[in-house]
Amino acid sequence: MFKELAPYLRQRAVLLTVTHIEDDQIRVNVIPKKLKDGENAALTTPLTVTGTADELDNDLPATLVNFVSAHLQLRNTLDRAKAEMDAAAKTAQAEARSKAKATAKKEPPKPETTTPTDTQKPAQPVKDEPSRTASLFDVPAPPATTANSATESAEGDEILAESTEDERVDEIDDFDEAA
Question: pTM, whole model, 2 decimals?
Answer without folding.
Answer: 0.43
